[in-house]
Amino acid sequence: MASFHWSVCVVLLCLASGVIATPPRTPVNVPFYRNYMPTWAFDHIKYFNAGNEIQLSLDKYTGTGFQSKGSYLFGHFSMQIKMVAGDSAGTVTAFYLSSNGAEHDEIDFEFLGNRTGQPYILQTNVFTGGKGDREQRIYLWFDPTKDFHSYSVLWNMYQIVFFVDDVPIRVFKNSKDLGVKFPFNQPMKIYSSLWNADDWATRGGLEKTDWSKAPFVASYRGFHVDGCEESVNARFCATQGKRWWDQKEFQDLDGYQYRRMSWVRQKYTIYNYCNDRVRYPTKSPECMRDRDA
Ligand SMILES: *[C@@H]1O[C@H](CO)[C@@H](O)[C@H](O)[C@H]1NC(C)=O
């Protein structure tokens, strides 16, 4: 009997140690139409390889975008994107989750283009109950226009994590105990779009979009969605607390992930609202949990 217990323990330990360092479940590549549909300017989206890859284009008439068919409460959402190459100054490529209504929740990735050879900026933000103003900006450690990279969000009751490939670049912990709202009851749709924002995007709006370089093209693939889908019958997901993203190893980053995040943040951070004493004389409560702030 004793040896039986012992062997069960060994098996469990093996399973546990195999799981701990694993990043969110490996995304599955699925075609665009499985999870998404175009939102506007349908003729500015091109489909390749049976919809496994798409391209959005922006010209002086319009940009374009798409959204998920379903709405989700918690889960893991990822997209592989290759940003607009060459002169992309003034353009913004966005990938975000958002709920509807006045007091909406939102989780944003925004990629701000630049002149040829100058670095993109990745801006992230989190809105809870209609309140945003939580911008962080980083440079990337690679050229995002050369290859596809994956950008993903893990969202559960404990934290919202932004990943670039497997590297966590930002964590927004549930700080309800500090009086900060956390997205937990408003299902979100996933959106992406490419548009002109030359009034603010590049060097604060100094660099304007050069329309002689249009169309500007961003490519997408790997339309992975693994979330609790809101159904007509269930306003809240009945399975809450039981899905893979709710489990222990996804409730906090592990040591290795924290080290990688610190590396990114110490080397590549341009702006962090948590350290902006001019705009916010009082530090926001959730910033107390920001180890790098
Ligand atoms: C664009 O390049 C300039 C000069 O290198 C840099 O200051 C800026 O942060 C870059 N990115 C954006 C989006 O402005």
Automatic annotation (TrEMBL):
This is Xyloglucan endotransglucosylase/hydrolase. Gene3D superfamilies: 2.60.120.200. It comes from Kingdonia uniflora. One of its GO terms (molecular function) is xyloglucan:xyloglucosyl transferase activity. Belongs to the glycosyl hydrolase 16 family. Coiled coil: none annotated. Catalyzes xyloglucan endohydrolysis (XEH) and/or endotransglycosylation (XET). Cleaves and religates xyloglucan polymers, an essential constituent of the primary cell wall, and thereby participates in cell wall construction of growing tissues. Keywords: Apoplast, Cell wall, Cell wall biogenesis/degradation, Disulfide bond, Glycoprotein, Glycosidase, Hydrolase, Secreted, Signal, Transferase. Glycans are attached at residue 114.
